[in-house]
Amino acid sequence: MKHRLPVMLAATILSLLAPVAAPAAPAAMDKAAIATQRFGNDAPWYQDRIPFFESADPRIDAVYYYRWSLFRAHQRDLGAEGYISTEFLDDVPWQRHPFASLNDATGFHLAEGRWLNDRRFAGDYVDFMYRGGNDRHFTDHMADSVYGRFLVDGDREAALRHLPVMRHIYRLWDEKFDFSKGLYFVEPLLDATEYTVSSIDASAGKDGFRGGDSFRPSVNSYMFANARALAKLADMAGDKAMAREYAARADALRTRVLDALWSPELGHFIDRYQVDNEHVKYWSPIRARELVGYLPWMFDLPPDDALYADAWRHLLSPASLAGKAGMRTVEASYEYYMRQYRYLGPDPECQWNGPIWPYQTTQVLTAMANLLDHYDRQGPVTRSDYMRLLRQYTALHYQGAGKNERLDLEEDYHPETGKPIVGLDRSHHYFHSGYVDLILTGLVGIRPRADDVLEVNPLLPQAGDPQALAWFRVQDVPYHGRRIAVTWDQDGSHYGRGRGLSIEVDGKEVARRETLGRLTAPVSRAAAAAYARPINRAVQLVRGEYPKGQASSGTDPENVHDAIDGRVWFFPELPNGWSSDAAGGEQWYVVDLGKPTALARAELAFFADGRSFAAPQSWRLQVWTGGGWRDLPVPAGKPVANGVTHAQWPTTETSKVRLLMSQRPGRATRLVEIKLFGGE
User: Fold this and answer.
1) What pLDDT, on a 0 to 100 scale, did the predictor assign at position 21?
2) How far is CA 614 from CA 664, 667, 672, in A?
3) Which helix or strand (DSSP H or E) is residue 526 part of?
4) Which of 140, 269, 547, 644 has most Cβ atoms within 10 angstroms of its Cβ?
5) Can you tell me the distance from the alpha carbon of 189 to that of 341, in angstroms, rounded to the nearest whole number?
6) Residue 334 and residue 58: Cα distance in Å, rounded?
7) Rg over CA atoms, the chain
8) Residue 17 has what pLDDT?
């Protein structure tokens, strides 16, 4: 593995020796214009929150912004408990009720959310998970993700806030630790990977949804990463004994993964069976390569050794894990490759015996970025491969063609055609993967660090390569309490600031080099930005309890409740909110709080599709007082479609709020969400 200090010094020397003119004014992007173009009426949510990105590849740009809209849609408001990220937009039976949380993709959610300038969303989510939200339904690498968030925002207090609970959760996994083998085991379903080689073969090919408990590269890599993170956090907290304990745990796991889960025959990290039955035997290895075998690199577990690096050739081989449209989860030679076992009625269900899975695609691209960034021995993998596979993953986000093309990431895809396999209602806009983090840490190459240095190493091939990118810029990236920007201009013609790679901190250029490569700059740490936590008083997760909704039409209980369930999205594929009847005239929606509550403002979200639904022509708010309804002194304004309409008034105590809406002729109203706040 590369030693970073010499690389840093060399990059710094190159930066100093390169002929650099006085820094030009930053080529700042027009955030307001881009936000409006990408997000329409919902632009205000994004404008001061997200890093803005542009490049010579418009399809990557479009997916980058789509993924922020996906992130926004999956922020569920729990009221006093704050926000969490969900995996599915709507409810699924296996979620943690009533919150709709699932812990398997938490690492991706935090990896994306750490790049927001508004730190509330990731902060609330971490607090929720460590205050009882992480039920260990699935394996995860959440402790590592908390440390990864610290590497970006530098907030020491937030990183250490839950350290005792993090340690407790780590120890609870002892129930899945085989002390005789020094490794963790898990049922593939609870590793979020049903129908894998181990579970299918443990049933002699008859099924694979349950069973097949195995010592897997995934869970052991996660626990290695979590132990390493706990050691670093304990050291930050001054608990040297805990730091030594968990550093030793990480080292022991690394040794056992290398000794036991590396298959010399397959040249790959593989499962060994923990289950013992008439079909498979305890400790026997599985018989085929899986994409999960690359997870150790996601956490820098393997040493910098050509023996291990050669495993990456399987990812590039059409005979193994390389499908025409994306990465296969199991190699094509496996006996039960792509056999469909499970259906929901007539429709196929998710399986990981071959289909492309955004979850593992993200993991492998993260692992590959690590390999290319700081390993000397990279096997057959090149930066061109990274960009090709990133673009392949980008393409999966697109559905339809021509004028009907739209962005909608689904659950799984056929590895040869790139078409969705499952395609259920729940599958639309699926947040079980990452993308923003891949762009920022891979393509742009921001490598977050614990010290006061900003390191950038874009994983782009040189000019002339078919996967090269002639220019890009990202700005408003939060880092150690500062805002940074990174610009690449291959020949200087796009931005007119000279050719090369440059870094800006708080609007000032601080480092530049003329060629692609590693570039570093000192960054003096500033206090992490504080964030407000206004509490939505209208939200209710359990239908039938206060606060309650009431409506003038469309009175099905679930329909009424959907306007106060803490979910806001405007995607047309999956309805969200209370939908009125289409009859003309005035419609109303009431939030019954169940008790007097001081309120001072509201947020109203209306959906419009240009066909059946439109925002109302006008609206007004009333409060229940003195046995009757009284209008609030809210200035009249045009209601916003597919965005948020804000209303504010002098603090008033009331137990009910009524929204009256003058409906457009021939159109129904869909109130996506109504939120009510006090004066905080």
Assistant:
1) 47
2) 7, 6, 12
3) none
4) 269
5) 14
6) 37
7) 26
8) 36
| Integer Cα distance of 458 and 495 in angstroms | 18
**Tally of CB atoms within 10 A around 237:** 15
d(CA 543, CA 267): 53
Q: Phi and psi at residue 86, in whole multiples of 5°?
A: -105, 165
CB 282 within 8 A of CB 268: no
Burial profile 411-420: b = 16 or more Cβ within 10 angstroms, e = fewer: bbbbbbebeb
Tokens of 453: 């240095």
Length, in residues, of the chain: 680
User: In the numeric block, which tokens belong to residue 378?
Assistant: 């990279």
Burial class (CB in 10 A: 0-12, 13-18, 19+), 567: buried
pLDDT digits (tens, 9 = 90+) for 143-182: 999 999 999 999 999 999 999 999 999 999 999 999 999 9
Query: Strand, coil or helix: what is 290?
Result: strand
Read off the pTM: 0.96
Model pLDDT, residue 635? 85
β-pairing, 519-522 with 628-631? unpaired
Q: In this structure, how many other beta carbons lie within 10 angstroms of the beta carbon of residue 540?
A: 22
The one-character DSSP state at 528 is P
Which class for 254: exposed (0-12), middle (13-18), buried (19 or more C-beta within 10 A)? buried
Structure confidence by residue, pLDDT tens digits, 274-311:
999 999 999 999 999 999 999 999 999 999 999 999 99
- Cα angle 623, 625, 627 (rounded to 5 degrees) comes to 125
Among the listed residues 630, 616, 593, 596, the one whose alpha carbon sits nearest the alpha carbon of residue 671:
616
Going from the C-alpha of 209 to that of each of 188, 199, 205, 352, 406, the distances in angstroms are 8, 7, 11, 10, 32
Closest CA to 606 of 595, 618, 598: 618
> Dmax over Cα atoms in the chain, in whole Å?
80
Tell me, what's the pLDDT at 636? 75
User: Three-state DSSP class for 101?
Assistant: strand
Residues of the chain under the 50 pLDDT cut: 3-23, 25-26
Give pLDDT tens digits for 45-95.
999 999 999 999 999 999 999 999 999 999 999 999 999 999 999 999 999
- Under 8 Å between Cβ of 211 and 275: yes
- 480's enclosing H/E stretch is none
Closest CA to 151 of 475, 434, 370, 441: 441
Torsion-angle region of 104 (φ positive above 0: left; ψ -120 to 50: alpha; else: beta): alpha
Specify the 3-state DSSP secondary structure of 658: strand
3-state helix, strand, coil in the chain (%, to 5): 35, 20, 45
pLDDT at 15: 41
DSSP 544-589: TSSSEEEESS---HHHHHGGGSS-----TTS--SEE--S-SEEEEE
What's the CA gap between 342 and 660, in Å, rounded? 47
Distance CA 606, CA 670 (A): 6
The residue behind tokens 């003096």 is 524
What is the DSSP-derived secondary structure letter of residue 199?
Answer: H
For 335-366, give the DSSP string: TTTT----EETTEE----SSSB-HHHHHHHHH
Cα dist from 188 to 130, 185, 194, 271, 630, whole Å: 24, 9, 5, 10, 58
Distance CA 408, CA 396 (A): 9
> Using alpha carbons only, what angle is made at residue 430 by residues 575 and 292, rounded to the nearest 5 degrees?
165
pLDDT at residue number 6: 41
